[in-house]
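Structure (tokenized):
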């Protein structure tokens, strides 16, 4: 490798690290206390063959209305930091799962008043034959433990509606403190 190529590679790596840092700060448009990286929406930041920056995102569910907003926010953050040219690529497989939400983000959700998805939702189960993880599509609602109240921690909660403020959340109420809250449904 020539010294020129080495310098170019090092510059490129530094630019990628900077782009990651910029994008890690982009908040989720629906839940601004967590970033798109913490939710697992930001999958990759890489250099395409043509030299452009390529940002890979995966929607939390297909048809999520926030995705165009997220792509726009990413564009604004990269423009502001001078990262043009870049592309935002939406990748649907593997499908996003609540398992991708980081532990930090789960705590932030709770502090924000949203019950985080309960543990590992088990939606990505290793295939018995190949051992590769596959998204299991379920048509029958599973009996998951009720989420604890994000405010008082009580386990005595009841579901009021399958859909809360957005389709990916359900509306619950705490039986003890009587507060309604959103539950980020595991899937
Ligand atoms: Zn409560």
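Design, position by position:
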């Amino acid at each position: 490798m020539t010294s020129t190529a080495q310098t170019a590679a090092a510059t490129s790596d530094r630019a990628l690290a900077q782009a990651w840092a910029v994008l890690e700060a982009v908040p989720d448009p629906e839940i601004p206390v967590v970033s798109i990286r913490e939710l697992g929406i930001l999958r990759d930041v890489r250099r395409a063959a043509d030299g452009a920056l390529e940002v890979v995102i995966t929607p939390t569910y297909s048809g999520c209305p926030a995705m165009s907003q997220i792509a726009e926010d990413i564009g604004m953050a990269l423009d502001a930091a001078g990262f043009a040219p870049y592309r935002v690529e939406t990748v649907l497989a593997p499908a996003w799962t609540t398992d991708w939400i980081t532990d930090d983000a789960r705590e932030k959700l709770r502090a924000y008043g949203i019950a985080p998805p309960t543990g590992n939702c088990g939606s990505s189960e290793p295939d018995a034959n190949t051992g590769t993880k596959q998204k299991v599509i379920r048509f029958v609602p599973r009996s998951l433990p009720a989420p604890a109240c994000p405010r008082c921690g009580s386990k005595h909660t009841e579901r009021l509606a399958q859909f809360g403020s957005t389709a990916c959340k359900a509306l619950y109420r705490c039986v003890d403190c009587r507060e309604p809250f959103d539950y980020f449904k595991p899937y």
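Reviewer-requested clarification: The domain at 3-90 is CATH 3.30.300.130 (GMP Synthetase; Chain A, domain 3). Residues 149, 151-152, 154, 174, 176-177, 179 surround zinc ion (CB under 6 Å).
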